[in-house]
Amino acid sequence: MPDAAAILARLDSILREVAALRDAVAASLPAPVADISANWRASNGLDADFLPEHLIEISTAAERLNRPPDSLRWACRRQGCGVKVAGRWLASAPKLVRY
């Protein structure tokens, strides 16, 4: 039977391997909305209303503004109130409120 020191050393090794696997998986996931860079916003003609802290999902906007999600998607698409990121519409809260 292994002694306590050997068991602890083995557990430390396993934990390091799990941490490395977690980092590898996290690196393969798409970037969160908060990671939208200033260069990307500028290259797409987006202003301060499209800062990451102002962007919300359509479902959240629908709940907060008591409006149908389809109407909000229309506003994002036709009125410039949102941006499409990774196939999903994100609405600019300040622009929707003004609209």
Provide keyphrases for this structure.
single chain; 99 residues; alpha+beta; 3-stranded antiparallel beta sheet; 5 helices; 3 strands; elongated
Structure explained in plain terms:
The protein is of the alpha+beta class and 99 residues long. It is 56% helix and 12% strand. The mean pLDDT is 83. It folds into two domains: 1-30; 32-98, no CATH class. It has helices at residues 4-28, 38-43, 58-65, 69-78, 93-98, and strands at 55-57, 82-85, 88-92. Strands 1-3-2 form a three-stranded antiparallel sheet. The protein is built from five helices and three strands, in the order ααβααββα. Strand 2 and strand 3 form a beta hairpin.
Instruction: Return the domain count.
Output: 2
> Could you say which overall geometry the principal axes of the C-alpha atoms support?
elongated
Regions with little confidence, pLDDT below 50 for 5+ residues: none
Report strand order across the widest sheet: 1-3-2
Q: Spell the H/E element sequence.
A: HHEHHEEH
What is the terminal separation in angstroms?
Answer: 71 Å
